[in-house]
Amino acid sequence: MYSVNLSGRVALVTGAGRGIGRALAHGLAECGAIVAVNDIDAESALMTTALGRGELKPYPADVADPAAVQRMIDEIMTDYNRLDILINNAGIEPTASVLEMTINEWQRTLDVNLSAAFYTSQAAGRVMREAGHGVIINIASIAGHNIPLKDRSAYVASKAGLVGFTRECAREFAAYNIRVNAICPGVIETEMTAKRRADEAQMAKWLADIPQGRLGVPEDVLGLALFLCSDGARYITGQAINVDGGKVML
User: Fold this and answer.
1) What fold, for 10-243?
2) CA-CA 20 to 30 A from 48: which of 17, 25, 54, 230?
């Protein structure tokens, strides 16, 4: 599908057991990268590797656990002795109002969607610093800008935080030739949005707000991710780029 050449590079994709993460893992592998497939669910990670073409290997771990993240990075380095690309894709989206959300729901969302990106970026960043190069991509959301989502305060807060973290991480890592960017998808056709896509009224509202008149698919996110991983994006860092069919125009 894409002509980006990533041969010889090693990439880690978190939350790659399904949806956008799976598409990212498969796309990177098809472009020649060796892909470490992470997911908290070992069976999902294994399924992604089984369905892909190219070299993919599962690394099940809870990225909200900093010790588990460090073990995973150590395993990747033992297996391949390098890590060139990190895509922080793992995320959850609980539905609850501010008044009804539990403390555990709030904390778990921030842990998975935001803190995990810090843990992985820190551990991978140390490896990349030694190598003198690297690419980190954080999968945020248009909700991280100014798009409100009813009953998803924890998700919105975590994605806004991820956009901010991306910029500050890019500022610090630039000295080590490590580029850090965020991709902010709109509504994408994945398992996470399946229930709401089944609601005709919700679909009509979504489509009315999207100039291109369609929802996104995981491959729409993949195309930008591959470009950001490539040498063609060597002068791009600290950006949060929307992939939303024109819903948000900044």
Assistant:
1) Rossmann fold (3.40.50)
2) 230
